[in-house]
Each structure stands twice: as structure tokens, then as C-alpha cells.
Design brief:
The chain is of the alpha/beta class and about 250 residues long. The chain has a domain of about 160 residues: Rossmann fold (3-Layer(aba) Sandwich), CATH 3.40.50. It is built from nine helices and eleven strands. The strands form three sheets. Strands 5-6-7-3-8-9 form a six-stranded mixed β-sheet, sandwiched between helices. The protein has a three-stranded antiparallel β-sheet with strand order 2-1-4, covered by helices on one side. The radius of gyration is 18 Å and the shape is globular.
């Protein structure tokens, strides 16, 4: 099946004063492709995401986007104040002026339909991440940008969340840019990995990257072996807290 290029970045560099944040980065994301961006703290991942979203202009290089591209964005974290109570439904309406039918649809899609009337501050880490994912899906994006989507979620919940992301790709036929440090889970659920440390250290299929000398040097041989391609066999499902609700658990 032919796939359309959604976004293409060429020769992206970014400088703040005299500090080089990103240098000569090129990549593209096509329809139905999951691209995972990995790298240590300070590698420039957040800066690159801002450039992709059009929030930051690169010092050099250019980003070409499909005409009329619809982008959904899930931030890394959300600070929720108990002093300002707001329900999940209200939060989603305020975010994108969504109709009730749209809210019901996306909450059901991410398995969070029972949270519609819950207060945002009362949600667990896994529940909040699903609500943020629902918010990113309301406008039926062609490109979904997910910044550390498993932040604050336990390991079982992470595996279920990444499986959900794969289902979303299939249902919406969208491209996905995923930023994560959970390599042992992410690398088995992605089409292409970009290893970033101000520049592109290496990129390619997960198996290829996990054996690349630049990857091994960046993360250390021991960590790289531990975090190499991870296969999680599913014949069960989890609830919003990551607990197994049916079937058996095989790893």
C-alpha cells in the first residue's frame, strides 16, 4: 500500500546564543509509520518536537508538511491543581471545544469511557495519560506526536499503552512521532528509531539500531543489551491501572 509523506525535515539545526542544540538533522514520517525518537537527557528531543509542531523555528534547515496536515499532540506531563477542580469531560471541551459525542468517542477508543465524570486531579498516572491521549485524538489527526506517553505509568500499563498506540495507528491510518526513554518496550513497537544526541547518532529499524556502535556507546553495552528489542506476548488485557483482567501473562 502506498503511503504519503506527512512531514519531512531537512538539515535542521538549532542554536540558542552560541550553544548548539541540534545539528543537521533530517528525517521524515509517512502515513501509518511509527517513528521513535530516543536519546539521553539534554539530547534535544524536546527542541526537535517543538520544531516539528511549528512552535520553534530552526536556525537552519526547513520542515515541509503535507498541506492542511492535522496534528494531535500529547504533552509529556500535565500539572493538575486540586484547588481548581475540573472534570475529564470539561477538560476535553475546554481544550478543543469538542462536542459531547466526540468526547464519548475518543474516551471509548482509549478505554477511558468510565472516567468522563471524574475529576482530573483524582486520576492515576495511567488514567491521566489515557485522557491526554484522548485529547490528542479528538480532531482525528493525520500525525500524532506523543512526548513520553508512558510517564508515570507502571510497566504493565506501559505495555498496554504502547499496544493501544499501535491500534490507534491502524484505526486512524496516521503517522506517529513517539518520544520515549522506555527502549525495552518502545523498540518492539516502532517502525524506525532515531537515536539523537544533538545530532542523529544512528537510525533505522529497531534491530539495526540496537546493534549500532553509536547506540552502544551512547547507552552503554550493558544497558543496550538489557534494553534491546523487547517482545511482549499478549494473550490478555490490562485495566487502566495496568492490572491483568483476563487471560495469562507471558513475557
Amino acid at each position: 500500500m502506498n503511503t504519503e509523506t506527512l512531514i519531512s525535515a531537512r538539515g535542521i539545526s538549532l542554536q540558542f546564543d552560541q550553544r548548539q542544540v541540534l545539528h543537521d538533522i533530517s528525517f521524515s514520517i509517512a502515513q501509518r509509520q511509527i517513528v521513535t525518537l530516543i536519546g539521553p537527557n539534554g539530547a534535544g528531543k524536546t527542541s526537535l518536537v517543538k520544531i516539528v509542531l511549528g512552535l520553534t523555528k530552526p536556525t537552519f534547515g526547513q520542515v515541509a508538511r503535507k498541506s492542511g496536515l492535522r496534528v494531535g499532540y500529547m504533552p509529556q506531563r500535565l500539572q493538575v491543581e486540586q484547588s481548581m477542580p475540573v472534570s475529564v469531560e470539561r477538560f476535553l471541551k475546554l481544550a478543543v471545544n469538542a462536542r459531547s459525542s466526540e468526547i464519548d468517542r475518543v474516551l471509548k477508543e482509549v478505554g477511558a469511557e468510565d472516567l468522563k465524570d471524574s475529576q482530573l486531579y483524582s486520576l492515576s498516572g495511567g488514567e491521566l495519560q489515557r485522557v491526554l491521549l484522548a485529547r490528542a485524538l479528538i480532531q482525528d489527526p493525520q500525525l500524532l506526536v506523543l512526548d513520553e506517553p508512558a510517564q508515570g505509568v507502571d510497566v504493565n500499563g506501559q505495555a498496554e499503552l504502547y499496544r493501544l498506540i499501535d491500534d490507534i495507528r491502524d484505526f486512524h491510518n496516521c503517522g506517529i512521532l513517539l518520544v520515549s526513554h522506555d527502549l525495552h518496550l518502545v523498540m518492539a513497537a516502532t517502525d524506525e528509531v532515531i537515536c539523537l544526541n544533538q545530532h542523529v547518532c544512528c537510525h533505522g529499524h529497531p534491530e539495526q539500531v540496537s546493534n549500532d556502535p553509536a547506540y552502544l556507546e551512547l547507552f552503554g553495552k550493558k544497558d543496550a543489551e538489557t534494553l534491546a528489542v523487547y517482545t511482549h506476548q499478549h494473550n490478555h488485557s490490562h485495566d487502566l491501572h495496568g492490572e491483568i483482567v483476563d487471560g495469562e501473562h507471558d513475557v
